[in-house]
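Shipment paperwork, digital attachment
Item: protein structure file
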Amino acid sequence: MLNGFGKLYSTDLPSFSGQGESPPPDSGARISAGRRPGWLVPGSLRRNWELSDGPTLELLPGLLERLGAIDFFVHDSEHSYECMSFEYEATIKSLRPGGVLMLHDTYAINAFPDFINRHQLEFDTLGILGLVQAPGDPEQ
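Attachment content:
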């Protein structure tokens, strides 16, 4: 059941492919011709969604500063060590206690294991997804 109060904030820097084309490995996100970022967000929920076009490295710091604390973050952007490490470090500081950081392609490169070791965080994996809960008591 949807409560209508959640907000979704997205940053995206997509590239587009023709119908039936497969992107080269590690080339970034590909969106089929005729589609735009967020095409899966239902029209009824778009009022609670904000999209910013541009690189995460440029947009995320300002977004996190504006939002303050966040409950949930999904990494599924550029799969470079620099970008992945940057997103993990920025968001772990912004997650509320008990908040969740979900990571796509957890072991594509060493950014995730290095992050976990650096912060001594517990984690779980579900296939290629990694899940990290921010330290602290969520009831405080």
